[in-house]
């Protein structure tokens, strides 16, 4: 990545409920600001040799269309919670269109569960009816060490999320952490010198057992020292326009479809 940049596109910036929340009439769920409509979380990264999709949220097809993302060349799974995985079938179009198997990278401890949960994709003995299709995905497990994907060296960032580990990533000037509660010392060291940081942050106030609230995310952002930090995985307790006014300089809320250039 030396001497080049990457493009980060936020596909969905909401939590597992999405926004609007079904049946909710709160000010955010009924807002006419399109930045307050938040799909389940995922991003696309334009790397030197193609587009890396991070996670496959349930409404993946809709989010890709809304953001104008027309190709996916590889996938990175951060963890296996439903809001980050259950849009996996929407990957079908990419292998069908190119005629090539789509490489996907999954935390080593999650590989067996992913294969079992989506047996129709990964079990070679599963019968496929003539004229039908399934995603053609080649799973590669990763651990704590760097991974080479689409011409970029990617460093996994393991962070605690309740009783499991979520794997964010560092690539070039970008540090990306979703669904984390704290950053271990080794992750802080891996983030040294990042230009752009992405952090999950639910709401102001009440602490959550497995996610940052906004105050905690601000504290972490200051510890990392990136030039700019984008907050994502936001709930319907926070309005985009209010966050723009309330957050300190250098920290701002992301929104679905936002694209930013990263050195």
Please give a quick description of this structure.
The chain has 263 residues and is α/β, with parallel strands linked by helices.
Major sheet size, sense and barrel closure: 7 strands, mixed
- Average predicted confidence as pLDDT: 96
User: What is the total tally of β strands?
Assistant: 14
Residue stretches low in confidence (pLDDT < 50, at least 5 long) are none
Distance between the termini: 9 Å
Number of helices: 8
Q: How big a fraction of the residues is strand?
A: 25-35%
Structural class: alpha/beta
Element-by-element helix/strand order:
EEEHEHHEHHEEEEEHEHEHEE
Q: Taking Cα atoms only, what radius of gyration do you get, to the nearest Å?
A: 18 Å
| Order of adjacent strands in the largest pleated sheet | 6-5-4-3-2-1-14
Shape: globular
Helix content class: 10-25%
Task: Walk me through the structure.
The protein is an alpha/beta fold and 263 residues long. It is 21% helix and 29% strand. The chain has helices at 60-67, 82-85, 92-98, 111-117, 119-122, 185-190, 214-224, 240-246, and strands at 6-12, 42-47, 50-54, 74-76, 102-107, 137-142, 147-149, 152-161, 164-171, 174-177, 196-200, 228-232, 251-253, 259-262. A hairpin with a 2-residue loop joins strand 7 (147-149) and strand 8 (152-161). It is globular and about 55 Å long.
Question: How does the SSE layout of this entry go?
Answer:
Blueprint: E1 6-12, E2 42-47, E3 50-54, H1 60-67, E4 74-76, H2 82-85, H3 92-98, E5 102-107, H4 111-117, H5 119-122, E6 137-142, E7 147-149, E8 152-161, E9 164-171, E10 174-177, H6 185-190, E11 196-200, H7 214-224, E12 228-232, H8 240-246, E13 251-253, E14 259-262
Parallel strand pairs: 3-4, 4-5, 5-6, 10-11, 11-12, 12-13
Antiparallel strand pairs: 1-2, 1-14, 2-3, 7-8, 8-9, 9-10
